[in-house]
Amino acid sequence: MGNSEREIVKTLFAEALGVPVDRRRTFVERSSSSEPIQREVLTLLEKHEEASVFFGELGEGSCPLVKTRKARKTRKQTETWKNKIE
């Protein structure tokens, strides 16, 4: 796939994200007559949805790393405020 085709894929993918999920396939098929471009965009959209579901299920509260980082940040903010008060 050449640079111009990649640009078309990027543009079409970005535009398709603004279309309701149940209408994206039709939108992509009508927006490009090139089957390789359609396949690439539809694959990207599928992977995007899978990632969104995964990260949505993961949630901020269930990830130990996120909890640890939030706790550190909160402790730092508390220490900063204590220092300002003293």
Mind explaining what this structure looks like?
The chain is an all-alpha fold and 86 residues long. The protein has four helices and no strands. The longest helix has 24 residues, at 35-58. The termini are far apart.
Topology:
Layout lengths: L2 H15 L6 H8 L3 H24 L5 H22 L1
Helix pairs in contact: 1-2, 1-3, 2-3
Question: What does this entry show, briefly?
Answer:
The chain has 4 helices and no strands. It is mostly helical and 86 residues long.
Give the strand tally: 0
Residue share in helix? over 70%
Radius of gyration: 21 Å
Overall spatial form: globular
Query: Which structural class is indicated by helix and strand composition?
Result: mainly alpha
Strand content: under 5%
For the terminal residues, how far apart are their CA atoms?
63 Å
> How many helix segments?
4
Show unreliable segments. none
Oligomer: single chain
Element order: H for helix, E for strand: HHHH
Largest sheet: none
Average of the residue pLDDT scores: 77
